[in-house]
Amino acid sequence: MKNIIIANWKMKLNEKQSIQLAKEYRKIKVKRTVEVVVAPSFPMLNEVVGILKGTDLIVGAQNVAVQASGTFTGEVSSEMLSDLGCKYVIVGHSERRTKMNETDEMINKKINQVYHAKMTPILCIGETLEENKIGQRDSVLVRQLQRDLSKVDCLPEKELVIAYEPIWAIGSGQYMEPEEMQIIQRVVKRAISSLYSEKFYDEKVRLIYGGSVNNINAKDFLAQNNVRGLLIATASLEANSFNEIVKQAE
Ligand code: PGA
User: Fold this and answer.
1) Which of 91, 98, 231 to mutate to test the pocket of ligand 1 (most atoms within 8 A of CB)?
2) pLDDT for 250 beyond 90
3) Closest CA to 89 of 12, 32, 163
4) Of 22, 35, 118, 164, which has fewest CB within 10 angstroms of its CB?
């Protein structure tokens, strides 16, 4: 499995800005050992897929419906995303958990939907500042993993990306000490091994970090043995910064 760098554009760019940034992304050179995924907002997906055609950049989505299809006004199914050319879907981002009241049960269903449409989920997990302060970080991560990944139909045959994003680090300019990822990795590996197997973790799971990653600190995270990539929002909105980060990934 290659390392993976993911750009999450959130709900920040209008059509013109998305087209402009996608065009600037075209100049990003992707090494053979790295996958680079861009996640624009839903209405921009088709256009961005078109602009990035012929490059090594991969398009992903920021969210997906819990259901496969049917009378769900305003929802977007995994099959629709896959038809558009998406290969990855971000699931369980903390903004969806906290601001849109997404539950672990919904996230579990979304992961199943993503696999059924032959895409790969990028499952986000992470603790709040309060949970961190009272020493609950690891237990929060284990609980999220157990609930989000329980009895997923296609596991352990499929690949999975786990993005550890401490909520207090997202968009705040504050980030975790990169060395701390060694502990996070042990916690995540133990939880996933007990749900499925150690073999599954070793062969199919990539653990990545997200939360105020920029072109200065990216290399410190990427230098950690067990970190297989990065999830980046703010710094991905500027093509040169994002390119700098991609360059540092091997
Ligand atoms: P940030 O966001 O890079 O702006 O901290 C990361 C994320 O929300 O995935």
Assistant:
1) 231
2) no
3) 163
4) 118
